[in-house]
Structure formats: structure tokens, C-alpha cells
Design a protein that fits this description.
Strand content: 15-25%
Shape: globular
Structural class: alpha/beta
Radius of gyration: 17 Å
Distance between the termini: 13 Å
Number of strands: 9
Number of helices: 8
Strand order of the largest sheet: 3-2-1-4-5-6-9
Helix content: 40-55%
Order of helices and strands: EHEEHEHEHEEHHEHEH
């Protein structure tokens, strides 16, 4: 193992991506704490310490962030859709800025932020919120990795599989190739591998991982683990 064991604080750890990532991090020997509301402690994977607080209010959890070197921000409205613009600002934006504020105040070495592919022809309110949080990360000067998936395939998220043949066609055409790659589909396994790589390989400055980079991270991860 050529990576250092890390102390990781996670917001959104009971969600679709969070549970998968936390289980993998714990299994690899990292110390992980997850922010949850009271009564949701049992939703965190085994081996993850629960921290009670409100992801929308930095004052409720920033004291717990001081002893960690990595903060992973995964909070977001479940099943995003164009009709949820107000929710994106109330939840995603507030949680993103709270996590950024807590990390900056605590002097966290590395901030990992789940964003979304940009630009895109739809989901404008969702993208605007994520872009605003990305800008805030740069404004406060955090060292950060920003992941930009479009849609993550996995349990309960399978319907876009029918689009895979269309993506393959678009990736072969010069005038649609770049958009098809930027807005491509990734799997839960690929996202988990990319998040692990981000945690285990912190950087100085800001690194952005788009869909091709997320897929490459998974390829590297699987190659190392063989």
C-alpha cells in the first residue's frame, strides 16, 4: 500500500454514494466519521463513527472536523430533476457552503466535493448550484478535488442503461463526441473508485475529475488491486 491512512469526515454518508464509499474506505483502513441527524446513526455502514449534526448548519459540526484531514461533501437532494430547483438551493447549496465553511475554518487539508458534469443542456438549476459551490471552494482557497459525474448507474438507478447504445454512437461522431464523453454514464463502482482515489491522493490546488477521469480512476484502482 503506497497511500497514507486518512481521517475522513463525510457529509451525506447515508446516501447512495456515501454508503458505498464509506464501506470501501473503512475496509482499506481509513478512519471515517459520518454526519447524521439523530435517529439515523444506524444508516451508516459498519465501522463508521456517527457524528450528530445538521449538514445545512456548519456550526453544528465544524468542531468535529478539526481532527480530520479530509472532508467529503456528498449531501444533495435525492433523485434530482428539473422540478426541484428550489430544493437544490435550500439543500444542495446550503450543505455545500456549510461543508466548505467548516473545512476552511478547521484548516482541513483536502476537500472532496461531488459536483455535476458541466455544461449540460438540462438541469440548469442543479448545475448552477453546484457551480456556485465550486466557485466558493476556489474563493476560500481550499485544496480540493471536484468530481463531475452526470448519471451514476447502480441499484435503483438502472433505467439509463437503455441509453448506452446511443452514447456509443455519439462517441463515434466528431460533432457529438466531446459532449457524449462529458455527459457519459458512470457506474457506482467507478464513482466509488474515483472517490477513494481522491481521498487517498490529496493535492495542492483544485483538481477536477470529469466523466473520462472518473472512468480512468476506476481502471487504475482495479489494476492496482489485482
Amino acid at each position: 500500500m503506497d497511500w497514507q491512512r486518512r481521517s475522513v469526515f463525510v457529509t451525506g454518508g447515508t446516501g447512495y454514494l456515501g454508503r458505498s464509499m464509506i464501506s470501501a474506505l473503512v475496509g482499506r483502513g481509513h478512519t471515517v466519521r459520518g454526519l447524521v441527524r439523530q435517529g439515523s446513526e444506524g444508516k451508516l455502514p459498519a465501522g463508521c463513527e456517527a457524528v450528530l449534526g445538521d449538514a445545512l448548519d456548519a456550526t453544528s459540526f465544524k468542531g468535529h472536523v478539526r481532527s480530520t484531514d479530509t472532508l467529503v461533501q456528498l449531501v444533495g437532494v435525492a433523485h434530482p430533476s428539473p422540478s426541484k430547483g428550489a430544493e437544490f438551493r435550500r439543500v444542495d447549496l446550503a450543505a455545500g457552503k456549510a461543508g466548505i465553511r467548516a473545512a476552511a475554518d478547521a484548516g482541513v487539508q483536502h476537500f472532496v466535493y461531488l459536483s455535476v458534469a458541466q455544461p449540460a443542456p438540462m438541469m440548469k438549476a442543479y448545475i448552477a448550484v453546484r457551480a456556485e459551490c465550486e466557485a466558493e471552494i476556489r474563493t476560500v482557497g481550499l485544496n480540493a478535488t471536484i468530481l463531475r459525474p452526470w448519471y451514476v448507474l447502480g441499484p435503483g438507478h438502472r433505467w439509463p442503461y437503455v441509453l448506452i447504445p446511443f452514447y456509443r454512437i455519439m462517441e463515434t461522431l466528431p460533432f457529438t463526441r466531446n459532449g457524449a464523453r462529458r455527459l457519459g454514464l458512470v457506474t457506482l463502482q467507478q464513482m466509488t473508485a474515483a472517490l477513494i482515489e481522491a481521498v487517498e491522493n490529496p493535492i495542492e490546488g483544485v483538481r477536477t475529475m470529469d466523466v473520462p477521469a472518473i472512468r480512468e480512476a476506476d481502471w487504475r484502482f482495479r489494476r492496482r488491486e489485482k
